[in-house]
Amino acid sequence: MTKSVFKTLLLSASALLLAGALIIFPQEAVKASVRGLDMWWKVVFPSLLPFFIASEMLIGFGVVKFVGILLEPFMRPIFRVPGAGGFVLAMGMASGFPAGAKLTARLRQEKQLTSLEATRLVSFTNSSNPLFICGAVAVGFFHNPHLGILLALAHYLGNLSVGIIMRFYGGSSVIDSPSKKGLPSFKEALREMHRYRLSDNRPIGKLLGDAVSSAIQSLLMIGGFIILFSVLNKLLLLMNVTSLFSHLLSLVFPLFHLSTDLSLPFVSGLFEITLGSRLTSDVTSSHLLHQTIITSFILGFSGFSVQAQVASILAETDIKFLPFFIARILHGCFAMMITILLWRPLHSYITSYNPSVPTSTNETFGWMSEYWHVCITYGPLLTIGFLLLYVWLLFKNLRRAL
Questions:
Q1: Neighbours of 15 (CB within 10 A)
Q2: Over the stretch 41-62, which tens digit does the pLDDT of each residue have?
Q3: Taking a C-beta distance cutoff of 8 angstroms, is the pair 87, 57 a contact?
Q4: What is the DSSP string of 258-297?
Q5: What whole-number distance in Å separates Cα of residue 304 and Cα of residue 236?
Q6: Could you give the maximum distance between any two Cα atoms of the chain, in Å?
Q7: ω into residue 184 within 30 of 0, thus cis?
Q8: Does 98 sit behind a cis peptide bond, omega within 30 degrees of 0 on the bond before it?
């Protein structure tokens, strides 16, 4: 049996198994689907849409070219990627999954990156945004905003560590684009930005419409994956597959002095970070350090749901997915190690949180919690409004084509 035939049989069997599980557990599947849809239209769509639209417009106006020239002396020696990678890194950290992959794929399609550079860049520009880490996980799940500092430090420092490791991907025989000597000229960066905007040659109205359409198309794809993996996670739990893997992990966790009660949340987090983080916070029988370690790995690994979204985006390019997957494992491991290293210095700060005593830190993370609740309350209205706008844009383009 050839590898191709085996792959066909495996995929067919998996699809049949999924279809059979949906038939056996229809009610539970519908509930899981609604839970995924609820998360998408309340939080994911309204929180990612502004960043996706803004990034598309910044690329169209040539701002990425401008930033790329200025950041070339920083990004090239450290991460072996062009300066435009600094823009992708910043937008990826600010907006969260999978913005880094979308922007990297876009720059690769415009040939601002080589295939090797894009593979390096995408490995460390996908991260969770501060709103989710500090607002949802720290405040919403653990009810401790001080914990957000530790989770965020571990997550972002771990991601940068992955970038430094992935700079060696491709070997020393690969010749990178030579960087210019000395500091870049601000005037030169402006000139390149202007040249790129003229070469784009789209009116502002057309550019804005394309940005909205591209952003909504990406978010529709993301929503589909969120719903799919929400259902898949629930079905695996009902079929005792998750329990089987958690039982196996419960034999391994004591070797690392981790509570066996965390094995089930860990397995769930491998599929979907929100569910995994929430289940981890619910294990009150475990030490807070152990909960934080597991949550840090879940955030770094980012779950098969996010990885499937990234794989779908990268499939439109020649960027390889396997290095990205390996980078997510490294990210999770680095985040765990950084959490352990920072726990002792930050322990007193984390455990000193008292919700009844107002502090500046409480106010800092309080607005994140409030913004999270605003998304949940008004997010559906924003989602429906932009979906109607998307339908109108499609109808308008069809009329022009006819």
A1: 10
A2: 877 788 778 888 888 888 888 8
A3: no
A4: --GGGHHHHHHHHH-HHHHHHHHHH-TTS-HHHHHHHHHH
A5: 14
A6: 67
A7: no
A8: yes
Helix residue ranges, H only, 1-98: 3-24, 26-39, 45-60, 63-79, 84-95
Q: Rounded to whole angstroms, how far apart are CA atoms 300 and 188?
A: 38
Backbone φ and ψ of 179, nearest 5°: -85, 150
Residues sharing a CB contact under 8 Å with residue 326, sequence separation 6 or more, in sequence order: none
d(CA 329, CA 323): 10
Here the tokens at position 58 are 């910044």
pTM for the model stands at: 0.83
CA distance 339 to 131: 19
Q: How many CB atoms lie within 10 A of CB 9?
A: 11
Q: Are 296 and 328 in contact (CB under 8 A)?
A: no
Q: Measuring CA to CA, how many Å separate 401 from each of 212, 395, 396?
A: 19, 10, 9
Is 277 within 8 Å of 306 (Cβ atoms)? no
- If you count DSSP H runs as helices and E runs as strands, how many of each does the chain have, helices first? 18, 0
Q: How many residues does the chain have?
A: 402
Torsion sign across C-alpha atoms 19, 20, 23, 25: negative
User: Number of C-alpha atoms within 13 angstroms, CB side, residue 59?
Assistant: 25
What does the pLDDT look like over 136-168, one tens digit per residue? Answer: 788 878 888 889 899 999 999 999 999 999 989
Residues 101, 107, 109, 110: what is their CA dihedral angle, to the nearest 10 degrees?
170
Q: Tell me how far apart the alpha carbons of residues 229 and 231 are, in angstroms, rounded to a whole number.
A: 5
Which residue, among 134, 123, 130, has the nearest Cα to 161 in the 3D structure? 123
CA distance 312 to 330: 21
Convert the pLDDT of each residue in 237-258 to its tens digit.
888 888 888 888 888 888 888 8
CA distances from 352 to 126, 251, 282, 311, 358 (A): 32, 33, 20, 42, 12
H-helix or E-strand spanning residue 110:
none
Nearest C-alpha neighbor of 142 from the set 36, 318, 358, 288: 288
